[in-house]
């Protein structure tokens, strides 16, 4: 079944569909008369899907069919587009809204809030919040002085009063506001809104410094004009070379100038803004001398507004596969244990929801194999002796509803019902309470409503302090947790009323979060103490109260390590005595998280009676099987798609269909998962039938390299590189003295020799490795692997200092223990037994950013040289480095899980930790993850790249970006031929010019679609019209694009050259030598400015004779493409070998202002003969260009967001020789080519 993509413009042309999203009810939408594949879906299901889009998309979707138009009118859709606090924002006027849609469009028109000091409205297309601050909310220097500023009322302003500038010398405006009024996760632009009269003398023609940003962060500054009427010549006469932003006229008649951008991440920050001009000696006023009242309305600074930056989608893509029927389910043909395995990869909540799909699923979900996966590995130890459960499902819900006391009644354990995550409450006996054992201050009592035997009651204290610790191994891994203090207050509670109690929580060794809570707050308000806001407590269903202490993320949990949580509840500043508080304990439970499946569950509960307690007591909805949309794709195309995932996901994808299973076996897939240098790692005598077999061989059989000093293997699930350094590759103190260390050979070692400690009192092991042999962008953990023999002593509970880190960066430090002696030491990391018989202990972690591309060095050490006791009986195998989310199977973990795994398993298979892959694998199995590759517009680029690889292999299509792309016709039909041409054009416009040319080879439909102007206009820069020669007429946008690639255009009075890179459409810039700063450049005895025909600029610089050679340049990154890595080159020519400079290394640097610049050396010519052979430094040599010039690379930079300044330097001042014979055309910036 073809997926139909709806596009506003395309459907408007072909079917008369129009979506203006205007008017009282959101605009009139023409209905398409043809049937839609969604017509059989329930209306509330469609409305739930649409509510996850945007208001603009909802209006467009209404044109798909009558079913969609009806669904879009529902309140459940528009309620999602309204802000959560919309009820408090509705204007207090006697108006009744007939629907949430009408309310939404009413809120799109601005209205006043907070006593008229702010204006609020919603952005119509996205529903994002917009705010304007009135001048009454700003701090204006001299704003209250009537001789300098005047406050007036004007009908064209939305506020009661605006500020009129009369006459000031010191012009300064500042303001602050909280981000809670703005939409979270949104980038905003800030503007100052004003009017000017009579050119605003003394201010309009001066650059004013402005800035906006979050308090506590660096605020970028820029310059604006309030009038900006000066032309380029006038600015040159005044010597003004800086870049100054001009104001723009608004539709409401006011002017606005942009102050800057900022991103509102979490609505808990404060924005700070400033508008300052204090350098000019002129007075800022209307006129010098007398002026009328109307003339004094110069520079009416009335409002400051925040408008979110938008990303508009021109295509709405819908899926219509799930057709409701009463026949059968696509799962009915699968074996029951297969379905059970699929469902066990989800969560308990989703399993209950899935029970409503078909009778097969409902029957399967009752299976013990499903619910056993949701239970913790040690669940058998949590069952009371008197309890008997016939089903694992009953046991699961028992552990959810009835908390179990563990560790001698010191902790309470239960499961969160929806996710199966672990929840823990520490009893007060597990906490450190100051004066807790003194009966005159605290007493321990038993009360029936407490789950623990005893709880403490506060009798009378002045210093209130409670502290606690707990290991994270008892919590669920990769989970956000919230901690709460659970308490009660007696009738005689005293000393806590509106008292701020400081609470702190965090992982030991990491930055902790701090906030203030209140045990006994006033009911009518929250009292503020300074700048601290007290967090309210909440009533619980069990009759107790709880106050949130804070949140933390548990990375490791049961499988990854032993991080420790530390918390405190303290008030030692209040002089009042306190009493009447009962503490039950500290509770840890997962942060509540609702998502798409939760909304589906809610919809099904309302309409089908499905409950999420394991009871499917309603009507069963059955779906008929639908063929996969990938069944018609070529197998190698599917293989290419899968190769962009990981080995784990590839094995999961093989279960989707037979087409996928066949595609996953392809060498194309598994070669992508192998390291590039895999051919050097395979023994010559070993032969493999497929790349998949080779991959699993490298996972299961570590390979020795570097003369047997290192061991290499791949992590099976991700394909990440793992390394072990042998003991011979380490630096061991006194290792060469047989009196202290002996080198032996044992059969269980993968290396030829291991180090055995005879006896020593100074224990020190160090190691290091270059990160180029590891996987890039990966967090690694470092372990020392060893054994203890019977006569081991001296290490009993001895703290060994372990350090791991990159050279030049601060190393992480921890203390480990090689032999814990069976005692619990809170601060020491204890060893774990491995399945291979060795023991390992974690030394630390580091993040490898570069991998193969960079050459960082990671160093690690384990030492104990302070306690002079003799140590012996240790056998060291080596130091192992593997990705942090991978843990070798240990005996302790296997016993805890109640099963033993085969570490190598069956060749070609992957063993998963099912709980890790909850949502991700669920979506993969039921097609959602794969279908998103075609349903999200942003991922169309990936699909086209896959097509490109496929077409290159099968049809010889090649795209070098030359001549606009050669089009190759293919006679075979394509699965895209049935899609509308404008839909294909829109998909391709999200790729790149190179990929568009390759895609033209897919079919004639693609070839025709790629010629569309809508494709090539997306590849052009927004200001392309100003770059075109006025005398030339272009027949298509593609011709314009190729012109801008092949013919660089001079901009800014000929001082810069601009063109596009043909393959990607990225911007390229060359600064002329007139735009750079050259020392002595204006002295004709040292430099002369000449014109030559082969230069693109009118004048270029020629070096005559200097001793001090220095060139510097700067440019704003807004001229370049965002999120792009650029290389910087100096373009030049030499005469007569450039005496005094050609063979001298020249220091160059490139970087962003405020950041560290990259430094290197270059030659303009370079030495020859023996001098060249004697050069030991890394010096970059120049290369000849196609245009006859030479170029030398100065360095690279990454342009993140086009809001920085670039600094470039080329300096040679150390050589005493005079230099001449160099002609400089300019400094060139172009995208870095991928290797």
From TrEMBL:
Superkingdom of this protein's organism: Eukaryota
Bias kind Basic and acidic residues: ranges: 17-27
Region (Disordered): 1-33
Domain F-box: 35-81, 328-374, 627-673, 973-1019
InterPro entries, per the entry: F-box-like_dom_sf, F-box_dom, PP2-like
CDD domains assigned: F-box_AtSKIP3-like (cd22162)
Protein name, per record: F-box domain-containing protein
